[in-house]
Amino acid sequence: MELIADMLMIAGTVAVAIYCVVLARRLGRFTDLEKGVGGAIAVLSAQVDDMTKTLTRAQKTAGASAVKLEELTQRAEDVSRRLELLIASMHDLPTVSEPSGNAQPSSVSEAREEVEDGGETLFLSQRRRVEAAE
Fold this sequence. Notes:
This protein is mostly helical. It is 79% helix and 0% strand. It has helices at residues 2-30, 37-92, 108-116, 122-133.
């Protein structure tokens, strides 16, 4: 009886040893850095690092853009206040009516005669520079 028990014990030990060898091979393939899950984990880890760096850069850029936008908004509000003051001050100015002797010329020939006589008009003064350049 002891002999049969020893033989069953040896057979069980051999079966467990074979099972351990098979599990070791499977675990070796499972953790292989090129083909197995270990490789997938290594690739995913590298991708997580890249995404973290990209996210950090994006956050810095967004922060800088927010600061710049805040500065531009402040400048726009300042300019808006100045324009409101200028417009408000324009309402306080009296209306000036031009005397009838200083009326604008009605035709181009009259304007040219006025320029030649020494009068100034804005648009023809620029035209004279163009004609002189030609």
